[in-house]
Each structure stands twice: as C-alpha cells, then as structure tokens.
Amino acid sequence: MSERSEENVPPAGVKVGKPAPTVVKAAAKAGYSQYWLLWRRFRKHRAGVGGGVVLAVVLGAVGLSEFLSPYAPARREFAYVHLPPQRVRFVSAEGFSWRPFVYGVRSERDEATGLKRYAEDRGVRHPIRFLVRGDRYSFYGLFESDVHLFGVEGGPCHLLGTDRFGRDLLTRLLYGGRVSLTVGLLAVLVSITLGTVIGMVSGFYGGRVDHLIQRLIELIFSFPSIPILMALSALLPPQWPSYLTFMGIVTVLSLVGWGSLAREIRGKTLVVREADYILAARSCGAKDRRILFRHILPAMYSHVIVISTLAVPGFILSESTLSFLGLGIKPPLTSWGLLLSDAMNLHVLYLYPWLLAPGACIIATVLALNFLGDGLRDAAAPFSGR
Predict the structure, then answer these.
(1) Average pLDDT for residues 198-215, to the nearest whole number?
(2) Most CB atoms within 10 A, among 82, 307, 337, 366?
(3) Nearest Cα to 365, choosing from 41, 53, 116, 111?
(4) Where do runs of H (alpha helix) occur along the chain?
C-alpha cells in the first residue's frame, strides 16, 4: 500500500459515517443553475408573486375572450343602451337558489331629466347557465364555435353594463385587453431588441460610434414623449385597415422607447467588456460578433428580463393615451384606451360611471407588472439577501 493511500485510512476505532446534512445540502445547492436560484429568491417576494398571479389571470382571460365573453364584441342591443351593471343574485323572494340568476330589466323615462332609466323587474328571473350557445366566433382562426362560458336565455346578461350603442362592456373589455397587452408586449420585444443591440455596440466599441449613438438618444429625449407619439401616429394613413394601424402603433411605440434601455445596456457593457473572460476571448482571436452575442449578451439576460417587465406598463399606458386621444387603435378593433374615450365627457361619466371599468383594468395590470418587475429585480440582484 502506498503512502498516500495509508494517509487516507482512518485511525483504528474511528467510525466513518455519512457526511453531515448541511454539507450535503450545501453541495446540492452549489449545483443549482442561475435561473433556479433566481426562482427561489423570487418566490420569497410576495408582492412580485402576487403581481405574477394577477398578470397570469389577466392574460388567461384576454386569451380566452371569445369563450369567456357572453356576446360578440360588435353586437348591439339598442333596447339596452347605457344599461347599468346587472347584479348576480342567489337569493330572491322565493328563497335561496343554488343557480345564480339576474333579474329582468324594464325601462322607464325620467320625467325630470328626460333620460332613459332602467329598473329591475323582480317578477322575471333569468338563470345564468354555463357552456351555453350564443354568437358564433372564430377562435384564432383554428376552429369556429358558438359555445360561451355563461349566458342567459330570453333576456339580457350584462354584468358590467353596456355602452352608448348597447354593446356588452365585459365582452369589449376582454377583447380590448387582448389588443392593449399585445401592443405592449410586441412594442417591448421590438424596443428591447433595438435597445440591447445598439447599447452593446455603443458600449463595446466606444469612440465615435458611442458618441453618435448617445447624441441620437439625447435628441430623442429632448422632445416630450406624448407630442412625439402624437406626431408619429398622425403620419399613419387614416385609410389603413385595422391590422396595419395596429402594426403602425407598435412600430411608433418601439421607435420612441428604445433609448432608455440602450443607455442602461451601454453602461453594463462598459463594465462587462473589461472582465477576464472577455479579455481571454479576445486573446484567443474571437471576433467582435461572437464576443458580443456569446459572451456579453448572456451576462445581461437577467437585467434585460427585469427591464422588459418594467417597460411593458409604459407601453400599455402610451397606447391607451393615443387611443384615448383618437390617434391609436381604430374600430372595429378596440382597446382599453379606446374604451376609455367614451368616458371623457364629465356629464357622461357622472351618469354612467361603469364606463370607467377599462381604467380599473389598466391600473390593475400596470400595478401587477410593476410588482412583478420589482420582484424580478430583487431576485436578479447578486447580493439580494432574500
């Protein structure tokens, strides 16, 4: 037996046991990936997890808007114009009912104001049924169906009320949320791509390239964002169809929103480019493109993810502002901002306050995205301490 093997033999009478549990746990923890550690820290951020849950519910609802909405978005019922939200009930004069229902509606004319008023007809009950057949729709072009999650037979079912054309507000909220969130996500995707690439090039090369890019960003920042958005949106031809207007709004928001991200990526690139592994890649003859996209970019993934979640609310608000001012999404498409434009008259808002429901959806979604971004930012910090 060699001297080395004899040194590893435990002394006589010493019992060799298993490693301590803390040692095994530390060894297992050392094998965790960066994304697993990010997820573990994020789970401890209650506000971030809550924001993620709310956002998942909103995305699921707008993604299944054809199935969840009781009516087609363009369906008009002029007999129920500006109908207040109907209350879902379980108790009536006859007692408790396991099946939810809504009362019938009767209209009457207010003699003092001349306005049309609605009142519940307690003598008529409309049970709310699930998986009912109604207006026909196409589900993302994959198949056609007429099955809706809920509905009633022989009466109205407008849980959030109707607008000035008698269109169901809940249905239009679901369809409008899909457009607003899609605009925000697509605009973030385009602006993140532009900002990341331009920021890395600016920080990596420096010199005249960096000087030219930074002056361009300062030129964009020197103008207020809303007038720029309005000016660029006004350039879109009014005769364009809805889908071209949709893509035009995405392009406009992306061209305005990439500057701040490019500056942040530039600052991080200035630090990363002096790292030892970057110098080693240069000494091995790696080309600039490989260094940028195989070494520098992966080091900023967590930063880009966090910035993306924090940038989505800004784009949603920008789209809502443009649509509210009449320069964004045009009918037959709808969005939360376009729905809010119906409530821009104080007199209308006083009489029909339920038209502010799109504003509540915008606030809830923006807060959820901000909480989610804060949670990811805290989890991505290397010395988070959470």
Answers:
(1) 89
(2) 337
(3) 53
(4) 3-7, 21-30, 34-43, 46-63, 65-68, 169-205, 207-221, 225-234, 242-257, 259-272, 276-283, 288-291, 301-324, 336-340, 346-351, 357-380
Q: CA-CA distance, 366 to 362, in Å (whole number)? A: 6
- Which single residue is written with the structure tokens 């707008």? 62
pLDDT digits (tens, 9 = 90+) for 242-289: 778 788 888 888 888 888 888 888 888 888 888 888 888 888 888 888
Q: CA angle at residue 260 from 254 to 264, to 5 degrees?
A: 130
Per-residue model confidence (pLDDT) at position 28: 46
Give the CATH H-level superfamily of domain 171-380.
MetI-like (1.10.3720.10)
Helix (H) or strand (E) holding 328: none
Contact criterion met (CB below 8 Å) for 186 and 250: yes
Give residue 24's pLDDT band: very low, low, confident or very high (50, 70, 90): very low
- What are the DSSP calls for 25-62, one per residue? HHHHHHT--HHHHHHHHHHT-HHHHHHHHHHHHHHHHH
Determine the Cα–Cα distance for residues 165 and 168; give it in Å rounded to an integer.
9
Boundaries of every domain in the chain: 86-158, 171-380
Burial (CB count <10 Å: 0-12, 13-18, 19+), residue 189: middle
101, β-bridge pairs: 89, 127
CB 233 within 8 A of CB 328: yes
CB atoms within 10 A of CB 326: 13
Distance CA 25, CA 305 (A): 29
Residue 129 contacts residue 153 (beta carbons within 8 Å): yes
Alpha-carbon span 235 to 32, nearest angstrom = 51
Model's pTM, two decimal places?
Answer: 0.79
pLDDT score recorded for residue 379:
81
Which residues make beta-bridge pairs with 143?
139
CA distances from 335 to 138, 220, 326 (A): 19, 27, 11
pLDDT at 170: 93
Q: According to the model, what pLDDT value does residue 15 have?
A: 52
Out of 31-40, 50-59, 311-320, give the one with best mean pLDDT.
50-59
